[in-house]
Amino acid sequence: MYVIIWEFQPKRGCEKEFQAAYCADGVWSQFFRLGKGFIRTELFRDTNSEARFITMDYWLSQETYEAFRQQHGSQYQVIDKQCESLTVRETHIASFTINSK
Question: How many other β-carbons are positioned within 10 Å of the β-carbon of residue 10?
Answer without folding.
Answer: 23
